[in-house]
Every structure is written in C-alpha cells, then in structure tokens.
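Collaborator request, handled under Task 6.
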Amino acid sequence: MIAIIGILIALLLPAVQAARRSQCTNNLKQFALAVHNYHDVYKTFPRQSYISFLAGSGVNLDPWRIWQGYSVHTMILPFIEQRAIYDQIDWRIWDGWYNQPAQLREAVIQTFLCPSDMKAPQTGWLHGPGCNYAVNSGPWLIWWDHSQMCPGTFRPNLETTIAEVIDGTSNTIMASEVLKGDDNGAQYLPGEPVRNVIPSWYNHGDPNTYLAPTLRNQPVQPYIDNLNAWGIQCQANIGDHLSNNGWNWMGANYTQTVFNTIVPPNWQYPTCIAEGPPGMASDRDGAYPARSYHPGGCNHAMVDGSVRFISNTVDLPTYWALGSRAGRESVQAP
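Structure tokens returned to the collaborator:
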C-alpha cells in the first residue's frame, strides 16, 4: 500500500509542478500585457520608481530615495483590473509608499503571485502581501543611478520607450521571478539577501567593475570569476541575511519588484548585497538574480509579451545580452 502511494505521488508531483508553472506563465503574460497597455496610454514604460509627483521632494531632493518610490506594479494597477486600489493612492504623500493606508499596501494581488512559492507570512515589516514578479534592471550591480547608465528595460528614475529597446523586443527581458522570505532570521532560504562587504574589485565610480563586460568590450571570464568569488564570500556569510524579500508589490526595491541579470537564474550562491547594513531588502547595490521553485530555471517575460523558461545553466554572456535593451549583441532568446 505504501509503495502504491509512493508511485501515485511520483506520478502526480510532476503534473502539479507543471500546472503551477503554467499558472506562473499566465501571470507573467498578464503582467507584460499590462505594461504594454501602460505604454499605449503613456507612450513609455514606467520607470522603476516614482518617489513623488511633488516638486522639490523625493528623488528631486535626494536621489537615493528611490526605494521610497512606487513600483512599476503600482503604476500598472489600472491595467490588471485593480483600478479601485490605484484610485485610492494618495500621491501627495511624498516620503514613501509605506505611508499609504494598510488596506492598500497589504492588498493581495493574485496576478503578482507564483503558486509554486509559499504564501507571504504577512508579519514583520509592513505585513507585506507578497510579490513574485520583478522587472529587469539589466546586467549590472547598481541600485540607484545618477549616470542613467542602467542597461535594463526598466531604469531607476528614467522611463524607457519600446523604440529604445534596440536589441529587439523578443530578445530583451521585461520581467522574471523572485522568491519570498519567511521572516525567520535564524533560517536561510534561497533568495534571501545576504549582507556582505564591497568586494575588492568593485568600484561604484568605475563601470568596468559593475557593468557586464560584453557591454564594454572587455574579457568575460575574469568578470565571471570575480562574481563567483564574491558569491563564495556571501555563501560563507548566510547567517547574516534578511528574510523580507518578495513581500511588497508597492515598493520599488530589488528583491521586491526589481531584479538584475548580472548572474544567472537561481544562482548557486546567495542573493548578495554589496553594502551593509541594508535597509528594507534591499536598497543596496548587489547581485539580485531571478529565482523560482520551478525545477531547472525561471519564467521570464520578454518585452514582446512572450514568456520563456530560461534555464539555470544558461550561458552567462547570453543572459547578459538578454538582460540589456541596447547592447547590440547578437543573440536569440532560449
């Protein structure tokens, strides 16, 4: 009898995993469609963060405040049948989305949730309702950007039009997956950002150290070696991690609504913060990969609206090329 039950479980588990991955694919398709509908109305994609619509405040005053801003997810609410929430947002609150009423911040939006991941604990900081999808910042390590060098589809404080995606909409990533933390500082889970020091090779003032080498016509392998060495360093420090990733769809942060493509999906090393101590996971530079519980890789929505499953073993220069909107690399999406 036990053997029969075991066989049934072995048969059913792949089917359940396939169904969850299919639902996740549908969610990402809806997300991509909403972003395109936004573009149809405003002739641009949203930027990563809208800190305030009031002059002289927010990012206009302190550029680092982009973490307080409203996410792409917030801006597309009217296009995923969530206008009732959008219409209640008080845009006059200049110092952050987290000061919005709890019934708005804590609203569970199924379109933003992958069924393969656990439910958000809705404890800790702001009782976040959960968010498994993040927009693409591209193959680099930067959090906020004075120079407007962000290579991804979504820039921290500057909108992007489809015309600026010169690498081709079918070959450029729009969004992918991130995982939720469990609010347990004593237990490390994949996707929970690990606090670390800035590695010796990384220099915020030098693009050669934070931007993918294929965008700078530089050798690839030394950069990959540096990333892996940093990952090993982070792996040794997993006891010092945060567990509130993947909680809040309203805020514009890495591990919440933004990821980068500097390392492959489900990177074997921890999500790695370059500076410490971090604020609300994670308003710091670092390696913030796409992550999922789908076997073998992550779903990715492309700018053309299609959804591709990209393997954990994808060639990293290829992934960098898919992450950049205007690198002029020659590549076909997997």
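The cover message to the collaborator said: "The chain has one domain: 2-323. The radius of gyration is 19 Å. Please let us know whether this matches your experimental observations."
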